[in-house]
C-alpha cells in the first residue's frame, strides 16, 4: 500500500512538471489613429491572470497552455473580448479598441444628429431607435413600438392591455399616429397587448409631444410619426422571426437595380391556444391577428421619385359576453375589425435649395361587434366605420440661415357611427344611425431661422378650417336647458354637402433655442392645436369599436394650448445626455360622458356628452448614455391631468359638482429605467423597470337595496386610485450561435416579462356584502412570463 501511495505522488509530480507555459504578448492601440494606450488592462480567465500595458501600450504575460478567456479594457473605449487557445508562444498580438465617442448612437435621442438635442429649437421631441427597440424586453417576445414609447418621460398608459398611450395628460385619441402619412385609428392588436403594425418594417419613430411642426394638425396632444424603411435598390434582403405569439417575415427586393424596389413586411398570429399558458385569466379568450405593410420606391430620375405605401390590419377577439344589448340573447362578444390604407408621395427636387412633395392618402377603418345568439347559428352585428381621404402638398426651401416649409392640405371624413344588423333574428330590430360627413382644410408656413451660433428660432403658423356637412338632421334644444330628448324643440334638415356648422382658427407654433455654451442650451416653446374629430367613450381605455365623433353644431372642437421650457446638456463627447423639461397644457372643449351615458347606436350623442376643460402640467427629467458597452436611460416624471366639466347648474350638466377632478390617466409619479449591456458580438442583455402611481377609478359610496337587489350609489367620479404599478422585464439576445455563414445571420431572444411576478391591478371590481363594500382586482399579467423567439436575417 505504501508503494502504491509513493507511485501516485510521483505521477502527480510528473503531471504537474509536464504542464507547459507559453509567452503571450502584444500591444493595445486606438483603432482610429493606432496610438498606444498606456495603462490599459488585459484580464485573463476572469481575474486569474492579468497585466497593464506600459507607455508603449505593450503587455507581456506567461500563461499555461490551453483555452483562455481574454478581456481588454481601457477607460473611454469599448471593451474587447475573445477566447484563445494557447498551444505555443503568441507574440506581437494587437488589440485595437474603439473610442466610444466615435461610435454611432444606439439609444433614444432628442431629434436627429449627435448634437441636435441642444442645437435645434425643439422641445419634447424624441426619436426611438428601432435598433434599440429590438434589444429591449418585449411582452411575450413581440417587439413593440408603443411599449417602447412608454419608457419615455411623459408617456403612459392606463394598464397592461390598454388601447394606445397617453402623452402629457392627453387621451389616446388626442395622439396622431402616422405610418408613412397613413393615420392609424386603432394602433393596437388584442386590446392593447401589441402594436398594430410590424415593427421590423419601421426605420424611425419620432414623437412630438412638445414642439409640433406646423405641417401636423388635427390632434390636441401629440404626433407619433413612423417612417417605413426604404426598399433596397441593389440587394435582396430578408428577415423574420418565430415566437409564441406570431410569425414574421420581411422581404426587401430590388425589381430594377438602382431604379425600383419593393419592401413587404407581414405578421400573423394564430397561436391563441397558448393564451391559457400565459395567464389562466385568458382561458376563455380566442384571439388572432394579422398585419401587412408594403412600400414601393421608384427613382424616376435624378430629380423625381415616387413612393407608395400600403397598410392592412385584421383582428378577431372573442371573450365572454360583456353586458347585454336590448333583446339580444348572446353567448359571447366577438370583436372583428380591420384597417386598409394607402398613401403615395411624389418628390420633386426643383434645385439644390427647393423641393416639392405631394401626397395622397386613403384610409378605411371598419370595426364590428358580433353577438352569436343562443341556440342559433345567427350572429347579430353592430358595424361602424371611418373613411379618410387626404391630399396635401409641401414646398421646402433650405439655406444656411433658413429652413422654410409652406403647404396646403384637405381631408375628408365620412363616419358611420353604427348600425345594428339583426341577420335572421326575429326578436332584434334593425337600427341605422345617421352618418357624419366633414371636410378639414389647412394651410401652413414654417421657418427655422439661425440668428447666430447661439440663437435659433422656429416659428410656424397653421390655419385650419372645419366644415360639418350634410346630409343630416340637427336637433335644436331649449336655451338654458340640458341637451336631452325632453328639451329638443325643433329639427333642422340639411341637404347633401350643405354646411351644417363651421369652425376654424389660427394655430401658432414657436420654438426658441439659446446656447449657453457648446454643450448646454435653454429652450422655450408654444403650441396651439385644434382637434375636430374625437372618440366618445365611457370606458377607461377606448374599445376598438368605440365611437368616433366629428365636431358639429353641439360638439365644439378641442383647442389645446401648450407652454414648455427646458434645459439640455451633453456631457463627455455626447456620450451622456441630460434634459429637464417643464410644461403646462390647457385644453378647452374636452368631452366627457354624463352619468349612465350610452353612446351605442345613439342618433344624437350630444345628449350623452358634456364638454369642459383639461389642465395638464408636469416636469420631466431624463438622463441617457448613448454609446459604449452599457447604454440606456433613466427618467422621472411628475405630472398631473385634471378635468373640469360645468355646463350648467343641473346634476346632469356637471361632473363632481363642477370642480376639478383627476382624469382617468392622471398618474402623478412615474419612473422608467432601461439598460442594455452589450457583451461582444454574441450576447447582449437588457432590463426595463417601470414604476407609476396607480390611475384613478370610481368607487361607489354605498349600495341601495330595492326589491331585494343591491344597486351601487356613486357620489363623485374618480375618487379612488388603483395600487401603484411597478414591473421588471429582462431580455437576453444570443447572436449567431454556431453560424459561420456571414450572409445568413440569426439570433435567439429570451424574454422574461414581469420578472418578480407583480400582480398589478388593471381595474377594480366592487361587490356588496350586506351593507359593506368589498373590492377585488383584475390582474392581466400576475406572474413571470417567459418567452423565446427566433429571428433571422439574410
Describe the structure in your own words.
This protein is mainly β. Mean pLDDT is 86; it is low at 109-114. The strands form 11 sheets. It has a 22-stranded antiparallel β-barrel. Helices cover 4% and strands 56% of the residues. The radius of gyration is 30 Å and the shape is globular.
Based on the model shown, name its key terms.
794 residues; 5-stranded mixed β-sheet; 5 helices; mainly beta
Short description:
This protein is mostly beta strands. It is globular. Mean pLDDT is 86; it is low at 109-114.
Give Rg in angstroms: 30 Å
The main pleated sheet reads as: 22 strands, antiparallel, barrel
Q: What gross morphology would you assign?
A: globular
Q: Kindly state the mean pLDDT as a whole number?
A: 86
The oligomeric state is: single chain
Helix/strand/pairing category:
mainly beta
Measure the end-to-end span.
Answer: 66 Å
How many individual helices? 5
Outline the low-pLDDT stretches: 109-114
How big a fraction of the residues is strand? over 45%
Number of strands: 50
